[in-house]
Each structure stands twice: as C-alpha cells, then as structure tokens.
Design brief:
Helix content is about 35%, strand content about 25%. The protein is α+β, with helices and mostly antiparallel strands. It has two domains: about 5-145, Fructose-1,6-Bisphosphatase, Chain A, domain 1, CATH 3.30.540.10; about 155-260, D-Maltodextrin-Binding Protein, domain 2, CATH 3.40.190.80. It is an enzyme of class 3 (hydrolase).
Length: about 260
C-alpha cells in the first residue's frame, strides 16, 4: 500500500509530537533516581525510563494505528511473525549503558514499515534536541534541515564505527576493517552511530543489532542512497538479529571485501 504525501506528512508530524513529549519525560527522569536492572549480563542494562518510554510510545501507536503490529525491545510489543501490514519498531532508549553512565550518545528510535517496505524512520538525539526523520517519499531531515547524500568516500578516507566487543576479539574481520580505515571509533549505541554515517561524519558502521536497533537507521540510510546489508552483503532480516553494515557505497564494498578475505 502506497501512502499519499498528505498521509506521510500526517504520520511524520504525529510521531514528532510524540518524540517531543518523550524527550521531556526522559530529561526529567535523568534528574531523578534511575531504577536500573540487568537483563542478560552486567553490560546489558534496562531502566525504568526504557520501560516507561516504550509503554508510552506503544500506547500512542496503538491509538493512532489500531491495526498495526509493534516490534519493541522491552516486551510490550507483539510477537511478530511476518512483515505484512503496518509494522512499527520502537527502541525506547538505544544505548542504555551510555544513558546510565554518560548521559550522552543515546537515542530514542521509531520506524514504520508497510508490507516490509521502509516508509518512515525517526532517531531522536535526546541531549542535543535533534530528530533525524524521513523516508523515501519525503527525504531525510535533521529537525527542519534537509540532509543531502553524504560524500561517497572509501573506507580509507574516513572513520568507521565498530562494535567494541567484536573488534576486541577480531570477529567478522573488524580488526582488518579498523586498520584499513583512516580512523575508527566505538560509540556503543546504534542510533548515534547511524547518525554519524547519514550525516557524513563516518563512512561506515557495523555491529550486531536487533530489529529495533537498525529499523529506523535503515529507512534513513536507504533514503540517502547509502548501502545497508548484513556483513555478508545480504538484505537484513527485519525480525531477527543481524550483523549490520551501513556505509557509503564505496566503503561498503571495501568492508565486504575485507570481511570475505
């Protein structure tokens, strides 16, 4: 189903209002005591803010789009089996460790796919009060500023962002990729890393991600003409974890070659 320009704009403006409210709630919560729990290990945290934001956003989505399905991180979504119809992805706090320890480099992310096609994505940089949003029918914006496609730089011409744990153990050729790049960084969160790539501050980013980690970033990256796939060059599975690679077209080719060598 193809939405009209009016429908796209209505959805976009509605979600921007939700995100403005979520930002206010998150900033207030940051000044208060955080209820922090461990999910799988000491590096995998969840807070009351993650849960509260997800419940708030999921309720908004269900009220606005009652027939939709929701894939979200903290257990308040649906057990989705396919990508038919309207499927929303919600990451209520992306980069929870950064949120807890640094209060920087974290994001709130939402995406809408219809019949497995990317429609709209939103990445809220909470601290800097910037929402990166858009999709293939409208382009990509940082608040009201329209973004252009980043320069098609090679891996050797720019900074690459990588998963720290997998870089440390030389997995997926990350050690070779880091050495081939002009420089490398570890941010520790998907949303802020995607933003560096789509804004041209990095030539690529790769990490293991769940669907809510990459859904919004994929919408924005594809709209800007960037390449995104798994680390073997295949399309991403929208309902399972992937080793995601997003990069300029030249850096994407460079990284795939290094991974496969």
């Amino acid at each position: 189903m193809t939405l009209s320009q009016f429908e796209i704009q209505d959805i976009n403006q509605t979600v921007l209002l939700w995100l403005d409210e979520v930002r206010k709630r998150t900033l207030i919560a940051m000044q208060q005591h955080l209820d922090i729990s461990i999910k799988h290990d000491a590096r995998d945290l969840v807070t009351n803010v993650d849960r509260d934001n997800e419940q708030f956003l999921n309720a908004k989505i269900r009220s606005y789009d009652s027939e939709a399905s929701i894939v979200s991180e903290e257990g308040f979504g649906d057990h989705q089996k396919n990508m038919q119809g309207n499927v929303w992805f919600v990451d209520p706090i992306d980069g929870t460790m950064n949120f807890v320890k640094e209060q920087a480099d974290f994001a709130v992310m939402i995406a809408l796919y219809i019949d497995n096609e990317p429609v709209l994505g939103w990445i809220l940089d909470v601290v800097n009060n910037v929402v990166y949003h858009g999709g293939p029918q409208v382009g990509v914006f940082a608040n009201q500023l329209r973004l252009e496609q980043p320069n098609n730089d090679a891996l050797s011409d720019g900074i690459v962002l990588l998963s720290g744990a997998r870089l440390l153990y030389g997995m997926f050729g990350y050690d070779k990729i880091a050495k081939a790049a002009l420089g490398y960084r570890v941010i520790g969160a998907a949303g802020p890393s995607f933003l560096r790539v789509i804004s041209g501050r990095a030539v690529g980013y790769s990490s293991k991600m769940m669907p809510w980690d990459f859904a919004a970033g994929q919408v924005l990256a594809k709209t800007l003409g960037l390449s995104i796939s798994d680390i073997d060059g295949r399309p991403l599975d929208m309902l399972s974890s992937n080793i995601v690679l997003v990069a300029t077209n030249r850096a994407h080719r460079d990284i795939l070659m290094l991974h496969q060598s």
